[in-house]
Automatic annotation (TrEMBL):
Belongs to the protein kinase superfamily. AGC Ser/Thr protein kinase family. Its EC number is 2.7.11.1. This is non-specific serine/threonine protein kinase. GO terms for molecular function: ATP binding; protein serine/threonine kinase activity. Keywords: ATP-binding, Kinase, Nucleotide-binding, Phosphoprotein, Serine/threonine-protein kinase, Transferase. It catalyses: L-threonyl-[protein] + ATP = O-phospho-L-threonyl-[protein] + ADP + H(+); L-seryl-[protein] + ATP = O-phospho-L-seryl-[protein] + ADP + H(+). The gene is SAX1_2. The lineage of its organism: Eukaryota, Metazoa, Ecdysozoa, Nematoda, Chromadorea. Residues 1-165 form the Protein kinase domain. It holds the Pfam family Pkinase. GO terms for biological process: intracellular signal transduction.
């Protein structure tokens, strides 16, 4: 059931997961292929995703928010150290294991740092890019992804604080 345009995304995910051996990234045990499909056998994470957790809890305590943001940051840093940019970090792609620890998933949009070097190719809304990206081109995609993650965390914490008042 794999469409041709999805093939590159699934292969990219398989390639990255085969390199990523880290407690902050979902584990891939096997990849299998038949004449029509590519299968990824991955770790089962019974805790669900961060989106579901945020819906259930409504708001997180400051300590819980710090915990999840720290673990997500470690996962993103690990991927950056491998030489990749995730490009789709969002609560849906942060899964939780049985103990509540974060695991980064869904690497279909991931790209290598060496493949794309200019921010003109960075696919994002201008409001989610660092302010200095507007005034001058910047070579580092890490900065854009880090900015996006921190901006999202700030907005979520601000909303949680505002809702308590």
């Amino acid at each position: 059931m794999l469409e041709k345009e999805q093939t590159a995304h699934v292969r990219a995910e398989r390639d990255i997961l085969s390199e990523a051996d880290c407690e902050w990234v979902v584990k891939m045990y096997y990849s299998l292929k038949d004449f029509a499909n590519l299968y990824l056998v991955m770790e089962f994470l019974p805790g669900g995703d961060m989106t579901t957790l945020l819906i259930k809890k409504d708001t997180l305590s400051e300590e819980a928010a710090q915990f999840y943001i720290a673990e997500a940051t470690l996962a993103i840093q690990f991927i950056h150290n491998l030489g990749f940019i995730h490009r789709d970090v969002k609560p849906d792609n942060l899964l939780l294991d049985a103990r509540g620890h974060v695991k980064l998933s869904d690497f279909g949009l991931c790209t290598g740092l060496k493949k794309i070097h200019r921010t003109e190719h960075y696919r994002n809304w201008p409001s989610q890019l660092p302010p200095d990206f507007v005034s001058k081109p910047v070579e580092s995609k890490r900065k854009a992804e880090t900015w996006k993650k921190n901006r999202r965390a700030y907005v979520q914490l601000w909303i949680a604080f505002y809702m308590r008042c």
